[in-house]
Each structure stands twice: as C-alpha cells, then as structure tokens.
Amino acid sequence: xxxxxxxxxxxxxxxxxxxxxxxxxxxxxxxxxxxxxxxxxxxxxxxxxxxxxxxxxxxxxxxxxxxxxxxxxxxxxxxxxxxxxxxxxxxxxxxxxxxxxxxxxxxxxxxxxxxxxxxxxxxxxxxxxxxxxxxxxxxxxxxxxxxxxxxxxxxxxxxxxxxxxxxxxxxxxxxxxxxxxxxxxxxxxxxxxxxxxxxxxxxxxxxxxxxxxxxxxxxxxxxxxxxxxxxxxxxxxxxxxxxxxxxxxxxxxxxx
Length: 256
Description:
Helices cover 38% and strands 18% of the residues. With 256 residues, it is an alpha/beta fold. It has an 8-stranded mixed β-sheet, sandwiched between helices. α5 (85-96) links the parallel β2 (56-60) and β3 (101-105).
C-alpha cells in the first residue's frame, strides 16, 4: 500500500510518531475492526477509530435512538430519535473519513452469529450493556484468535481491558467475570445512572487500546483491566490470571 498525498496530510500527526510512522498507518488503513454496540462507549470510540483511518469498520447494534441516550451518546442528536443507530453511525463515519468502509449490522450479537461477525476482524471493541452479549463476543474472539477490547461503564466507573484468550498465559473475558451471568444479571445505566463523560473516557480509551493492538505499539496490556474511578479521580490496574477451568480458554477448552 502506498499512502496518497491526501493521506499523508490527513494522518501526518500519526506518521510523525516514531511508534506509528507510515507503516503503522498502513496497518490501520488495512485493518478491520468490529464494534459491538453504538451506545455511549461505541459512539465515543467510533469517531476516533474512523479518524485514525481504520479501513473497515463493522457496527453491530439493533437499537434505535431514544431521548435518554443523548446525555452520553454523542454521535446522535434530537432529530435522530427513533432512527436505527447502526445506520446513523454509518452515515456519520462516511462524512468523517472517506477512507473508511463501514458495514452497518442492525442485529443483536449472540452465540448464533458472533463467530461469523468477528471472523474476519483484526480487533473487536465490545461496548455492549449485558453479560450475555459480552460473553458471546469473548468466546467468539477466543475461538477466532481476534484481540478483544472490552469496555464498560457504570455510575462513575469505567473498565477497559484487552484480551487474547487463545494465548497460553492469556486470560479471556470469561476468566474475568466467570460464566454464571446472563442478561438479567447486568445492572443497566437506566437503573443505576451514569455520568455521561464516563462513556467518553471509556470509548476513547478503547479506541487507544484498539490502535495499540493493531499497530503493536507501547507495552503489552493484554490480560490487564484498567479501572477508572471518576469520583476520586484515579485509575488502578488489575492483572487477570488465566483460569485453567475456563470453558472458553482453559485446559478443558483445549482438549479435542
């Protein structure tokens, strides 16, 4: 791939970074990223990933815009209420960067379609709002050997982690939360509330982790969960240990 004069100008601030450079920018332009959820986290991560020049983005979301979304889902406005989020995001990204091919999938990701949706990805960003979806995404990424950037928010807290569960010492997201959860076990923003800016923080952090995973820059952060407390404010990092009994990436999963 040869960068055009326009691309050299557009991505100049990336290219002058020795950790990215022209070769790293080419990796971004050749990458396919799947974003699960176009809500608060996705709506913040997507513009930065598009601006970074991710060549192909697949947006998976079956929701429509509601008035209560607008406090944190910054890609949408009052006039978008009632419209499908995935299609709106596709239009927003097209206006932001013509280098980016966008596929809008207006469906809920689950065990029946997760593997096909992530199979061709170079990275997956999960900003969904329930454990059933998160575990389906994690299991599919582990099987497909696709890096998973998982981001979640609640009240004044954000959690962001990168997982490579297929690696010998790499935990998956299921190692972190266990497998006893289902959709009814997940507290929602509508029940507990969330500071809107926390969605922006989590989404931007997820975009950073995705760029790091694709380009291979900086120190490895796989298997670490970064937890930001907006009330302090402060961040701490947990090291997640691979669970040998994990049915997705543990010893049992490795047996034929």
